[in-house]
Write a structure and sequence with these properties.
Elements: E1 8-17, E2 20-30, E3 35-40, H1 46-53, E4 61-66, E5 69-71, H2 76-82, E6 84-87, H3 99-103, E7 110-111, E8 114-115, H4 117-130, H5 146-159, E9 164-168, H6 176-191, E10 196-199, H7 203-209, E11 212-217, E12 220-226, H8 232-240, E13 258-266, E14 274-279, E15 283-287, H9 294-302, E16 309-314, E17 317-318, H10 324-329, E18 332-335, H11 339-343, H12 350-354, E19 363-364, E20 367-368, H13 370-384, H14 400-413, E21 418-422, H15 430-445, E22 449-453, H16 457-463, E23 466-471, E24 474-480, H17 486-493
Parallel strand pairs: 3-10, 3-11, 6-9, 9-10, 15-22, 15-23, 18-21, 21-22
Antiparallel strand pairs: 1-2, 1-4, 4-5, 7-8, 11-12, 13-14, 13-16, 16-17, 19-20, 23-24
Helix pairs in contact: 13-14
Length: 507
């Protein structure tokens, strides 16, 4: 069988940032009509390589060939003219504009000097229909969910009719139905001859959609494999340079006294009050489909949003409504789902972000102790293996996974008694996931109670002592570990089946 010539070739690519060698002799070859997966840990160089391809960075060395000729795009607009489009892991939309305005941003359709809004809206509707996305093109983007905003990003790339499409973690905020729809779009593009470069940390997605996979580690290209001829174990070994025997290790920990108690909490839009309790050393998983109320529950417990009724106690102390400061003072921490918008001060340093919750401990007479700030930050940077040039580096310059670790480090610094984790491993590679799982095990061994919201079933089944299943803003059931199966949890998440009567308020 004759192998077609690569549509894209990248060879000898090098890129250095202050204090960090991001790429060293990296290479990539993409064939026409294939889904080419790029796999690697956070900081392995995947996104940097793609940003060079799409004109956001200039390489220090190396060559890029596309459609038979050498290219060196000086910016994203030039790359777009060449037929290259990239959907970034972090959302890149203008919140104050409509969906249609974002889809056509920089390419507005006009006639006689007037923007053809109706035409743009109709075209956007057609693109969203291809994604099975029922969003009004005239809605303001700021009013959309994270999942809906991700689909708007994808629709914009489809409008550009790219000759090669790069997708960086495109399914991180999508439901299973939305992922299936996206995969259908990707397969259609490939059948039409348009290759897709697909960056993902989810091994299941690689085998569901990929044709070939290139593994990167520490800025180098480790190798390229046919997906059909490899295995998850082999990909993990190549990615992290070691074998991970158990991807979701559970540390046995005795469960102690109740430290978080939620009584008759009524979320907005729901008529079902929620009662839950979590003991020290316990991991309570929270499952449910997108829109089921998982994040709303966590935000209401933390006081970021008000509930319509109910009480919350931490270590016997009742929390006032809508008061995150009181929640933190009581020992409650919240790692949010959207780290970029809600979890970080992007223009501040890594050290400043880590110590935000302990300013009173590192200040004297109203003045911030910079030495104390740095000491705390360095300890947590080393503990969590955060890849940063220094504690003073602006946090916006870190990879998505390392940004997530910075948020986690902040709550570790606060010595919380209860931690609410909303998708803590979203956008995290398999090696970093294992580190975070190990860290969660250390926390519960120290008596910390963890509420773990996750869309990844293996994560919930592997770590949780019990799994609370949400449906339409209410609690369907709390399933003990011994009875928790993927089938049982999905049945409850879909609103089916009779609850088995697991006691929601017993630790």
């Amino acid at each position: 069988m004759t192998v077609p010539a690569p549509l894209l070739g990248m060879a000898g690519i090098c890129k250095r940032f202050p204090g960090v060698q991001a790429l060293q002799e990296a290479s990539l070859a993409v064939l026409p009509g294939e889904v080419h997966v790029i796999l690697g840990e956070n900081g392995a160089g995947k996104s940097t390589l793609m940003k060079i391809l799409c004109g956001q960075y200039l390489p220090d060395a190396g060559t890029v060939t596309f459609c038979g000729r050498e290219i060196a795009p000086s910016g994203p607009q030039e790359a777009e003219r060449l037929g290259l489009a990239m959907i970034h892991q972090e959302l890149n939309l203008v919140p104050g504009l409509t969906v249609a305005e974002n889809v056509f941003l920089g390419h507005e359709s006009t006639t006689g000097g007037f923007i053809r809004r109706s035409f743009m809206s109709d075209q956007t509707r057609d693109l969203l229909d291809r994604l099975r996305c029922d969003v009004d093109p005239n809605r303001i983007v700021a009013d959309l969910s994270v999942a809906e905003q991700q689909l708007v990003e994808i629709a914009r790339a489809l409008r550009e009719q790219a000759r090669l499409l790069v997708m960086d973690e495109p399914t991180a905020a999508l439901s299973d139905t939305e992922i299936d729809a996206l995969f259908e779009v990707i397969r259609t593009l490939c059948r039409q001859g348009t290759p897709v470069i697909y960056i993902s940390h989810r091994l299941s997605e690689i085998f569901a959609i990929g044709d070939r996979v290139t593994v990167m580690r520490d800025g180098h290209t480790v190798g390229t494999l046919e997906v059909a001829e490899t295995s998850a174990d082999e990909l993990i070994r190549l990615t992290v340079g070691r074998t991970i025997v158990e991807q979701v290790p559970k540390r046995p920990v005795p469960i102690g006294d109740i430290v978080l108690e939620v009584q008759d909490l009524l979320l907005h839009g729901s008529t079902q009050p929620i009662t839950l309790a979590v003991g020290s050393g316990e991991i309570l998983g929270v499952a449910g489909l997108m829109g089921s109320g998982r994040t709303a529950l966590a935000r209401a417990i933390f006081g970021a949003d008000t509930a319509r009724g109910g009480t919350i106690h931490v270590a016997g102390r009742r929390l006032p409504a809508h008061a995150p400061g009181s929640a933190i003072a009581a020992g409650l921490g919240f790692l949010t789902e959207d780290r970029k918008q809600q979890g970080l001060v992007l223009q501040c340093s890594v050290a400043a972000n880590i110590t935000l919750t302990i300013l009173d401990r590192i200040s004297r007479l109203g003045f911030l102790g910079l030495a104390g700030e740095r000491t705390q930050a360095v300890q947590l940077i080393e503990r969590l293996r955060i890849r940063t040039a220094s504690p003073d580096q602006e946090v916006s310059l870190l990879s998505g996974g390392n940004q997530q670790k910075v948020v986690l480090a902040r709550w570790l610094a606060a010595h919380c008694r209860v931690l609410l984790f909303d998708e803590p491993t979203r956008g995290i590679d398999v090696g970093a996931k294992a580190e975070i799982y190990e860290l969660i095990g250390e926390l519960v061994a120290q008596g910390v109670a963890v509420v773990l919201i996750s869309s990844e079933m293996p994560e919930l089944l592997g770590l949780a002592d019990r799994v609370a299943v949400m449906y339409e803003g209410g609690l369907q059931d709390v399933v003990p570990r011994s009875e928790a199966t993927q089938e049982r949890i999905m049945e409850l998440a879909l609103g089916r089946g009779n609850p088995q009567g697991a006691t929601p308020h017993s630790a």
